[in-house]
Design brief:
15% strand; 308 residues; 2 domains; DUF4835 domain-containing protein
């Protein structure tokens, strides 16, 4: 992806500053939130160890070089990683879940759109402050850095796909390679293997790599660059592109019902889709309502007003 495309999202002063002095900053502005209250209730937990764990995750995600592209400070991809540790059966061994949230600004506005949100229910790893963790993308090393590297590449896929058609493809391959290495070597295969949870990391990247989901990934570019990014100047076009994308998702969903990618999309976008379409013409609202309640039935109450 041309980084100049992404710079269009910035305000004019930021744009001029970025062009005046390009920097080799890392790609992410990751915020890691670590909750370990359930561990405290079960056993004595060292707050300093938890603080070091949080610092490690922040540093690994924000200071690793994930691409060959140049990122100005204002271009960094904003992400949140909310980690909830629920169990520790031995010193340094942790089980829990994690939520990844990826967002980006919308051109010509102060609005930030959530690109993707994903809940990983298999966040299991080993961490001791006294032990250094190593990461090698070509050979499985340690569980925690491999999971974090997977999240980083997933974030890159959705960000790059939103700025150029299939722009995230190099990171699809990287994430797929990480999964293949981990599923053969990880002691925690439930998070990596095809026989594990149907919404685990394997199935997430399987969806994104599958040709059946190519229309979905191409549709993301249309929805964001040709839809949301023109909302200030042409809101009618935004609604048109939104309906086109919903019809695309309907076709993908018929081939692969209840997929983790489609489910995660609606977890992130339901409020936004409603707010876009509520301003549409009556026939557009009805069309959106019909599509949304079929694709995302758990949010029917939210979408109900579209049919009124």
């Amino acid at each position: 992806m041309e980084r100049s495309i992404k710079l269009l999202i910035l305000t004019i002063p930021l744009l001029l500053g970025a062009l005046a002095q390009r920097v080799h900053a890392q790609e992410f502005q990751f915020t890691v939130n670590l909750n370990y209250e359930q561990l405290v209730a079960q056993q004595k937990t060292d707050p300093q160890s938890m603080s070091q764990l949080q610092t490690y995750m922040n540093d690994f995600l924000n200071n690793t070089r994930w691409t060959n592209d140049q990122f100005a400070k204002e271009e960094k991809i904003k992400c949140k990683l909310n980690v909830n540790l629920t169990r520790s059966l031995a010193q340094g061994n942790y089980e829990g879940n994690a939520q990844l949230i990826v967002s980006r600004p919308v051109y010509g506005s102060t609005y930030e759109t959530v690109l993707f949100t994903y809940v990983d229910k298999n966040f299991t790893f080993t961490y001791l402050p006294s032990t250094q963790l190593y990461f090698n993308e070509n050979s499985y090393t340690e569980e925690l850095p491999y999971i974090l590297a997977f999240y980083a590449n997933i974030a890159l896929i959705f960000d790059y796909d939103s700025f150029s058609k299939m722009g995230g493809s190099p990171y699809v391959q990287k994430a797929f390679n990480l999964v293949n290495l981990a599923r053969n070597s990880s002691p925690n295969k439930r998070g990596w293997d095809s026989n594990g949870d149907s919404k685990n990391r394997y199935w997430l990247i399987e969806n994104l790599q599958s040709q059946q989901f190519t229309p979905f990934r191409e549709g993301m570019y249309k929805y964001y660059r040709q839809g949301l990014d023109v909302a200030t100047q042409n809101p009618a076009e935004t609604r048109t592109k939104t309906l086109e994308f919903l019809n695309t998702i309907k076709e993908v969903n018929q081939l692969r019902p209840a997929s983790v990618v489609v489910n995660s999309f609606f977890d992130a976008k339901s409020d936004e889709l409603y707010k876009i379409m509520i301003e549409g013409l009556p026939e557009q609202r009805v069309q959106a309502y019909t599509l949304l309640v079929n694709l995302d039935p758990s949010k029917t109450q939210l979408y109900q007003r579209l049919s009124m």
